[in-house]
Design goal:
alpha+beta, six-stranded mixed sheet, 41% helix
């Protein structure tokens, strides 16, 4: 999350660069106004009013992250990110998650960085007082509910998160190795935010409570509220619920602790899950808001992003060692680091990559950056800024960020001055000050048995790998209720506040038009931000491919934005970026899509480039070869990544060999060998037609302007007959079977359970989604999460869903569980599914209806959400007001309906069970599930 915040922040700096924009010929200043006040106990409160949608975002940010921890007691800040959702004195056990479901919230969530922990949620405006009450309970009336069983269970959840996010994925331990070698042991950035599993296991209840009481106090917390609310009433509620929480001890300021390296450190590690070598270089850098951080950001973008970037030219274009280069700064409160990462092609020696990096640096040293390129980078930042302000939560995050780390939500003025002041000379100056000739930490993460690919002089990195042994985890009973004396209050906090006035939910107005070429248009005019977002869909995709050449449409989509007949790849890229626009192309199983966004003032110019991309393909052979190599590398890496393995193997099992949809859309190694650039040309010539295309657009542009912008494309894009074949679907599953894919040494087992179920156009599709909400579609409100995560601590996350298009899609239950409880997890999932309809009660229906109806208030808040609405309408023939009609379906759903649907669509004895994990320890026991001997899908690996 910290890296994401830095990206948002950079975009946010540009708020004052464009002080006004044209909206129907009227100039309107774009501002993010706020009001800040402080309670007597030290709580900082920031309010921002935005009445564009009937929703409110509430964020509680505590100025405590892993940097406040001590050696031997790490991971506490992140642990509390988990604990604070479980229970508080007045909401009760699971109270916040249960309330979130009832009020139609998007789901309470949180994140932890080195320097802060935040808790956030967007809810319908009528639930604001409930949220303020709940957040106050979290801050002042929580810690008594944490008991030894609660702590023991949540330790298991955090361990599962570490296994999933670090230990069971390629390059997962890279950041840990860097931190331990960049920062001395006395520096608070020396350890991972998630902490040490050993420290976590050794943590006592007294340790945990002491940490909370020190840092979770009003004078170390910022409350941000953004959205549609009454300011005066909100102030009264904040004072009522937060005012009597006691102030804590004074919070010491975190002093800046810049680091220097006395020598360059080179380390390597043979990664069990990597199939490609990866080199990462990390230099000591600057803290957040340091004057040099602005020029360093420009430097990172210029050196690595785009066709003319020096590092891209040397590593991708010239040496052909990789398909991409990543360079970014990771700035935190007291120090920072500058990171360059390259994942090379298979068998590439990383010393060659290092030579390519040095070549790129020399190129930059000789030429520097031009004013034109500097302005091009800023244009992209402007568009990204507006995009990130399209939600009230995004605005709230930024205000809190400024308050905590700059001391003022209005720090934006100085921030903008700093970014605007960057010159080409500044960019060269920071390069020479922080990068050129400076010591760094180099990590070479290479596949098992390929240490010879590491940088010369590298020493083996220390990586602590957890040993998972059956029966060695702590036992606990999560059902035991905590007993404690309630914290005194001046009023009865156990009474949940009433709802406010119900929001008036208005669906966006949708317009449609069919052009003479057959191209269908659908759009929503919206002037909340001066942006447009669009999606041009060309139906077909993999459905139109030959089985021996799977991957053609994916490669075609990739190639479409790599130049045009009259523009080189670099020239097209510069043309797009100079407009502050983005244009991307990608393929799915059922189509090719060109997506983009732009400032409204540059919409027509952006669409002219889209037309050029469609009508004047370049067919650049050099780019084709690069795309082919890049795709091959992706396929190779997928074969080692457990979640990718599960996704690809599950498709094969549910669709069967005869269906085109059983394939990985990017292809296989053999099918890629069969594909030439002529195959892409033939596919384009046969299947690119306005007759099977839909243009969807949302933003500050009218129907007339959109139609006018497409007039030339409509005239020149000739329609042709494209027949999309019917998809072959297998017969239903007679009896469940268990399939196992062996990944030796896996710390987790990835589980996929399901079958081929429904199309989105089926009458039962939405009713089935309603039925699934309490099973696994409702996050923490779902039974799967409550029992496997909250009840047992088996997993970090689990869910279930129905997917479909005009073709049948899968019902799937997915999770990653600790490997030594694979059997127990599968057994419990099977039991929950078997009993779901039988045990569905009035309360389950009430929670389901409450969430699905009330969540409509925030369903179409962002441009992206509105674009999704248009996609459903245009592809599935839904009526324009389908959201209202679905609301009626929810209101009329009965328990008997749920029981009927679950009986029809949730038969645990007619599903496919796939486990990707360590066969040596987990395969045999799965026979006890009762579905016979598991079928090993990659038996040769085990033998």
């Amino acid at each position: 999350m910290k890296l994401l915040h830095n990206y948002f922040l950079l975009c946010f700096l540009l708020i004052s660069i464009i002080p006004s924009y044209s909206q129907k010929e009227k100039s309107k200043e774009f501002k993010v106004d706020f009001e800040k006040f402080t309670l007597k106990n030290g709580l900082q409160v920031i309010l921002h009013v935005d009445r564009s949608d009937p929703v409110v975002a509430v964020a509680l940010t505590s100025h405590v992250g892993s940097a406040r921890e001590k050696v031997g007691r790490t991971g506490f800040a992140h642990l509390f990110e988990h604990l604070l959702f479980l229970e508080s004195e007045n909401l009760g056990k699971g109270g916040l998650d249960k309330m979130s479901a009832r009020i139609g919230g998007e789901g309470a969530n949180g994140s932890t960085s080195r320097d802060r922990t935040n808790y956030f949620q967007t809810v319908p405006k009528d639930a604001l007082e409930k949220m303020i009450w709940a957040e106050a309970d979290k801050l002042g009336y929580f810690i008594n509910t944490v008991t030894d069983p609660v702590l023991a269970k949540e330790k298991q959840v955090v361990k599962n998160e570490k296994r999933q996010s670090y230990d069971n994925k390629p390059y997962g331990n890279t950041f840990s190795v860097i931190s331990k070698n960049l920062y001395p042991t006395t520096h608070p950035y020396n350890w991972d935010v998630i902490g040490s599993l050993e420290d976590l296991q050794n943590a006592t209840l007294e340790d945990v409570k002491s940490f909370y009481n020190r840092w979770y106090v009003p004078n170390n917390v910022t409350l941000t509220i953004a959205g549609d609310f009454d300011v005066n009433q909100t102030k009264i509620w904040v004072e009522k619920y937060f005012g009597e929480i006691k102030r804590g001890e004074a919070i010491p300021k975190m002093e800046k602790q810049a680091v220097t390296l006395a020598e360059t450190k080179k380390l390597y590690y043979e990664d069990n899950f990597a199939r490609l070598p990866q080199l990462t270089l990390t230099w000591p850098s600057v803290y957040e808001y340091h004057p040099d951080s602005y020029a360093l950001e420009v430097l990172a973008t210029y050196l690595s992003t785009g066709k003319k970037a020096p590092l891209y030219q040397s590593l991708v274009e010239d040496k052909k060692l990789t398909d991409a280069v990543a360079l970014y700064q990771y700035n935190s409160e007291i120090a920072g680091q500058y990171m360059l990462s390259v994942t090379a092609f298979e068998k590439t020696n990383l010393n060659e990559v290092m030579d390519g990096i040095n070549q790129g640096f020399k190129e930059f040293e000789a030429k520097g950056i031009s004013e034109q390129d500097l302005n091009r980078i800023k244009a992209g930042q402007e568009t990204a800024f507006y995009t990130n302000l399209s939600s009230v939560l995004g605005k709230g995050f930024q205000l809190a960020q400024y308050e905590i780390f700059a001391g003022d939500p209005g720090y934006i003025t100085q921030d903008v001055k700093n970014i605007l002041a960057v010159t080409p000379a500044d960019v060269m100056r920071v390069y020479e000050k922080y990068i050129k000739g400076k010591h760094f930490v180099a990590t070479s993460f290479v596949p098992k048995g390929e240490a010879n690919l590491a940088l010369k002089g590298s020493v083996l990195a220390t990586v602590v790998e957890e040993k998972i042994v059956d029966g060695k985890e702590d036992a606990f009973d999560a059902s035991v209720a905590a007993t404690y004396q309630k914290t005194p209050s001046s009023f009865d906090r156990s009474v949940e506040p009433e709802y406010g006035e119900s929001p008036d939910v208005k669906l966006p107005t949708v317009w449609k038009n069919n052009l003479s070429s057959g191209l269908k248009l659908i759009g929503i005019e919206n002037h909340e931000v001066p942006l447009t977002q669009f999606l041009l869909q060309i139906k077909g995709g993999m459905l139109l491919e030959e089985k021996n050449k799977i991957g053609v449409s994916n490669m075609l989509a990739e190639l479409m934005t790599k130049g045009t007949k009259n523009k080189t790849p670099e020239e097209l890229e510069n043309a797009i970026e100079s407009l502050g626009a983005t244009i991307k192309a990608y393929a799915t199983d059922e189509g090719i899509f060109i997506s983009g966004n732009s400032l409204a003032k540059n919409y027509s110019a952006t669409m002219a480039l889209v037309e050029e991309i469609i009508m004047q393909p370049r067919w650049d052979l050099k780019e084709f070869d690069l795309i082919k190599q890049s795709t091959l590398s992706t396929i190779q890496q997928q074969k080692a990544e457990p979640n990718s393995i599960a996704k690809n193997e599950f498709k094969k099992l549910i669709y069967g060999k005869e269906s085109i949809l059983s394939h990985n859309r990017i292809g296989e190694e053999q099918t890629l060998k069969n594909i030439s650039i002529d195959d892409l040309k033939k596919f384009y010539a046969a299947n690119s037609s306005p007759s099977v295309s839909i243009f969807q657009i949302v933003g500050a542009v009218s129907q007339n302007e959109v139609t006018k912008s497409l007039a030339s494309l409509n005239k020149n894009w000739k329609a042709k007959k494209v027949i999309i074949p019917a998809v072959k679907t297998p017969d239903g599953i007679a009896n469940s079977k268990i399939y196992f894919y062996d990944v030796p040494g896996a710390k987790q087992s990835v589980i996929r359970i399901g079958y081929l179920a429904l199309a989105a156009t089926d009458a039962d599709f939405y009713p089935a989604e309603i039925m699934n909400y309490r099973l696994g579609g409702g996050g923490f409100a779902s039974q799967l999460t409550q029992e496997l995560r909250e009840g047992k601590g088996y997993t970090y996350g689990i869910g279930s869903s129905f997917s479909g298009s005009t073709n049948k899609g899968a019902f799937v239950i997915g999770s990653g569980v600790r490997s030594n409880i694979t059997f127990e997890s599968v057994s419990l999932i099977k039991e929950i599914v078997e009993n779901y309809g039988k045990k569905f009660k009035d309360n389950d229906l009430e929670v389901t209806k409450g969430y699905l109806i009330k969540s409509n208030a925030r369903a179409f808040e962002t441009l992206g959400a509105k674009l999704g609405m248009l996609y459903d309408i245009s592809n599935y023939n839904y009526p324009n007001d389908y959201a209202k009609k679905q609301e009626d379906i929810v209101k009329n759903t009965s328990i008997s309906d749920i029981k009927r649907l679950s009986e029809k669509y949730l038969n645990a004895d007619k599903m496919i069970y796939l486990i990707v994990g360590d066969a040596a320890t987990q395969l045999k026991k799965l026979e006890e599930i009762g579905f016979g001997k598991p079928i090993l899908l990659n038996e040769s690996v085990t033998k």
